[in-house]
Amino acid sequence: MRVVVMGAGGYVGSRLVPALLAEGHTVTATFTDISSAGRFWWSDQVDVVEMDVLDRPAVRAACVGAEALVYLVHGLGGDDFATCDREGAYNAAHAAVRSGLERIVYLGGLVPDVPEGDLSPHLRSRLEVEQVLTDSGVPTLALRAAMVVGSGSTSFEIMRQMSDRLPVQVLPRWMDTHVEPVAVTDVLTALVGALKAPPRSRAFDLGSGERMAYAALLRLYADRAGLRRIQVSVPGLPTGLVSRLAPILTRAPARTVQSLVESLRHDMVCRGQDFVDELLPPGHALTPVEEALDRALAVPDEDVPDRDRDIIGPLTSDPPWVGVVVR
Q1: Alpha helices, DSSP H, located in the chain
Q2: Is 48:31 a contact under the CB 8 Å cutoff?
Q3: Which DSSP category does 268 fall into?
Q4: Which of 160, 203, 251, 288 is the most exposed place for a label (fewest CB within 10 A)?
Q5: Does 304 reside within a domain?
Q6: What H or E segment, with its residue span, contains residue 178?
Q7: What's the gap between Cα 55 and its chain centre?
Q8: Is the whole model's pTM more than 0.85, yes or no?
Q9: Residue 147: CATH number of its domain
């Protein structure tokens, strides 16, 4: 199958492309800046296309001759990311219809069981993108995940860098909410499986099956990282204040950190595990959160090339702020 991966240079996209190649797919990988493609070991095995999702003709051109689209574009860093994400989704949906694609696969965020108006701007935007793609009429499988565990994942890196820097963790009471992390390997397997599943439109929640409070996840991380950390619960600490302070403690893009922190006030857990039967191969075992943390924290042999490394761990193609201990 010829698959267009929009957002191939991002965390999930850069790890998905080799998985698609291993399955025998032909891949078109899109980049906003084509000069950045060369840092990925697989770049000479795919069709590399420079494309901005806000450029409708370019999006249409990228889809010509394709059978499926994997849409991994999120504009969390912009001043008006919701508008950009909406326009990009409309352009992708238009291109999918015009090119006669068989299916769209989209990776978004888990949707908490709350009224849509109560969602954070980040989650509301991801849900809107899902709705735009689904409304195209092209069969759309929307995969939803909360924290993706792996070195280089923005949510994981925020946890890593804040935990490394803060010996005393001041936790707002609203962080008593729960999260269901999922290893990036299981996300990739589900994305690949979505290209084989019957073409229809529906959403799947992706998770490890392990639900825990954010505070418990931070304790587990500290334990696996060999850190001693004290947690102090503080009532009345507003989400907005925490979202403004968090970027100071990390080297992840500030606006992205703010957007993700604002989502922490809701339980981010799966409504079911049907993705295991419908998207994963028979006998596939989900990676336990503790194992995923250990593998994300492992220091790789620098002599081992990216193509042979554990993709839960760091790759040389990751952004320079990944894995940095902020002191």
Answers
A1: 11-22, 56-63, 81-98, 121-134, 154-165, 184-194, 214-225, 239-245, 254-261, 275-278, 289-297
A2: yes
A3: B
A4: 288
A5: no
A6: strand 178-179
A7: 23
A8: yes
A9: 3.40.50.720
